[in-house]
Amino acid sequence: MEGKVRIGFYALTSCYGCQLQLAMMDELLQLLPHAEIVCWFMVERDSYEDEPVDIAFIEGSVSTEEEVELVKKIRENAKIVVAVGSCAVHGGVQSWEKDKSLEELWKTVYGDGKVKFEPKMAEPVENYIKVDYRIYGCPPEKRDFLYALGTFLVGSWPEDIDYPVCVECRLKGHPCILIEKGEPCLGPITRAGCDARCPGFGVACIGCRGAIGYDVAWFDSLARTFKEKGISKEEILQRMKMFNAHNPKLEEMVEKIFQGVEE
Ligand code: SF4
Ligand code: SF4
Ligand code: SF4
């Protein structure tokens, strides 16, 4: 890209954790001579959502009617749109129960509380506009953001990770939570890139980086192990839905894992 790269960072409904993660990156200071931050309310008071940008980073899920309009406007104004974090890429934990009605969920959380905006069920950005690249995780790794941004800046395109968390977990030498403790770790079917952070702390993966490609998991051995440990299809499906409820292939994938091992 020639001249200063114009960057926008836009927030939809979220915990703002992704932005905070990026705003705390010292490496961003090195970028300032080469980039102009056109919109990023967390770091720049003089931010403009209507301006054209080269790269638009979007955090959060589309959860209000106003945000539907905002993402369309961002798309019109941006050459490259990047969805950042599980909320933007997958709808986030807030869309976990996407099959329930908004009224039912609203009542559970807010009772008769009213708001000034028009709420809707949380959805991934991609349900409304074309997304050019995704940065996974809740929150994403700093290196994923730097890799994507650096690659765009030299006029190239970042690659996607297409292997599961288990690969990084084995390389790190962590004890296997699934095999040794019999807990339903989702590492075998979740996209790597976090260096198996949770298993590193002795905690089973809950799939925050999203399911890997449909045909990557080793379904046969995985199914045998789940069955051996007494972990059911329903349990895996429920756990995967926490961050992957909008994945249209999810049920088919879990079904395939358990094919041939059911009683
Ligand atoms: S992906 Fe996670 S860290 Fe990022 S905004 Fe959503 S909930 Fe927060
Ligand atoms: S199942 Fe979980 S703990 Fe076991 S290797 Fe895979 S990521 Fe690591
Ligand atoms: S181990 Fe799983 S839940 Fe933990 S950070 Fe990695 S992908 Fe997310």
From TrEMBL:
Pfam families cross-referenced by the UniProt entry: Oxidored_q6
InterPro entries linked to this entry: Hydrogenase_assoc-protein, NADH_UbQ_OxRdtase-like_20kDa, NADPH-dep_hydrogenase, NiFe_Hase_small_N_sf
EC number: 1.12.1.3
Gene Ontology MF term list: hydrogen dehydrogenase (NADP+) activity; iron-sulfur cluster binding
Alphabetized UniProt keyword annotations: Oxidoreductase
Entries under PANTHER family matching the protein: COENZYME F420-REDUCING HYDROGENASE, GAMMA SUBUNIT (PTHR42845), CYTOSOLIC NIFE-HYDROGENASE, DELTA SUBUNIT (PTHR42845:SF3)
Record protein name field: Sulfhydrogenase 1 subunit delta
Species of the source: Thermococcus camini
UniProt domain NADH:ubiquinone oxidoreductase-like 20kDa subunit: residue ranges: 15-149
SUPFAM superfamilies per UniProt: HydA/Nqo6-like
Gene3D superfamilies listed in its UniProt record: NADH:ubiquinone oxidoreductase-like, 20kDa subunit
Enzyme class: oxidoreductase
